[in-house]
Amino acid sequence: MTSLPTCKDLILSRQSGVLHIYLNRPEVKNALVDGVVNELHAVLNAARDDRSLRALVIRGEGGTFCAGGDIKAFKSGLQEVPPSDEEVARGNRSFGDLMIRINEQPQTVIMLVEGAAIGGGLGLCCVGDITIVTHDTKFRLSETSLGIPPAQIAPFVTERVGLTTARRLMLTGASFTGEDAVRYGIGHILAVDTADLDTKCNEILAQINHCAPGANAVTKSIIFEATRRSRTEALDFAAQGFARCMLSEEGREGVSAFVEKRKPCWAEE
Fold this sequence. Notes:
The protein has eleven helices and nine strands. By secondary structure, it is an alpha/beta fold.
């Protein structure tokens, strides 16, 4: 079992094969700062190769998912010691690295979204494998109304919702609801309230328990390599992954369980 880092801006709770990660700055609606980003990096790195972890569930403490970047903290930093263009760009880019890491994390990543998902918080919704949202969650890409672009989240939002919808949402800063978010493809499942959010999350986790953790990790890598490689190269990569899985202990167990008409060892009740 992986040893997880000690965190200040996150709350971590491991329950069997599921790691629950809470953004823990409820006093500012879980706005993002360097501490949150750095701790998320550390947790994802620690969990990356742990196949006893099947899923990561990310949500906000205190009833709000994430209000985006902490603008007040950023303004305070500007007043103390004005940074250079390079420093600002480097800090901004670090969030993009986090988006890539969450997007391609080998475990299945579930986002539980309620209250609000603004700016970078909306971006986080777009890198969940399964994103569940309450119908009254407030969504907004607010960056351009603040005089800045949604720089690091733009590619992920565009990939999620498509070019024309991304342009409309980013260039108008319009607010929309959880129901709209599901219609746009940002969310996958609509929940009535917090209790229903938990219920639907548990239903998804029960489905994930039927899937082999190693096979899921390889499947995610195949999905992303299919977007980066030529068709032939992607299929070669997939064939290599298939062979590794088929000849692994997990693959042998899956085939044996099918032939013997029983559940494989990873299929928890």
